[in-house]
Amino acid sequence: MDCKDAISALKDEIKNDPKLKTAPETQMPSINYLLSYLMYLRLMRTIERNNLLVQQAEEARKKNTQIDGKKVRPQDLTRLYEIILQNYTELQQLPGFDNDADYQKEIETAMKAYRAFRCYYIAQVLTGLRRFREALAMLERSSNYTSESVANKLADKELLHKVEMLQKDIESCKFEVHADSVLEDDEEDEETKYTSSGKPYKDKKPLVDRLDEYREDTQVLTKNPNIYKLPPPMEAIPCKPLFFDLACNFIEFPNLDDKTGAADGKKQGAGLTGLVKGFLGWGKSDK
């Protein structure tokens, strides 16, 4: 908080001083470096704080204890490592350190180490969701990050030790995920499924989708049987096309009276009219 207050005071000083506003960037390096130094201190203290939160969460997860009445989940650790990576991204973008190759390399090496931890806990989240292929892919990526960070020689010895321990955890986790995927394939081939407590396994498929499988499903006899999914899932259907006849009013159609018989009717009507006129004396010209 002290660093934050100092940064705010320095920014106000730069904003309120007219000389600093008009001065070129080449004549105010000391103020820029002072601002970058204060921001560096604030970000490093924030990273240390987040690392302590990570340590607390990891210890609670190993001991299966709760923090503030809540059980620690892999998602919580993933979020903490994501915050740390955001802090390191801000460290990379500090003004005055863009062209410092050694500084940028040190930050990038530390970021690879933290990316390895993030991928590891993302893999655990995917394992809990029974998405084993994605979990193995994330573990493989985490292993690559650990190898790169160790090869580049991390400056933080404590972080280096954690990365070395993570390499062993990744290998064991790979075997666990592979075993879980094999067990799930075996369970799908069985006619009846049972949980570890001996109770029948509740199939998520509705009965209408597995009519060709014989299975003693006690869930069908309950008040909420899984027979058909309601409402049914939406399916894509072909769209009914709409036609607009825009040229109808500009087309001259041919006369088809001779083909439809309308012309014969007109001739017949004209003949009868002439016969009546001739019989009554109409239409005669006086000469």
From TrEMBL:
| Any GO BP | SRP-dependent cotranslational protein targeting to membrane
List cellular component terms (GO): signal recognition particle, endoplasmic reticulum targeting
Q: Where are the transmembrane segments?
A: none
- Which InterPro entries does this one have? SRP68
Pfam families per record:
SRP68
Question: Which GO MF terms does the UniProt record name?
Answer: 7S RNA binding; endoplasmic reticulum signal peptide binding; signal recognition particle binding
Q: Know the name of this protein?
A: Signal recognition particle subunit SRP68
This chain's source organism reads Parnassius mnemosyne (clouded apollo)
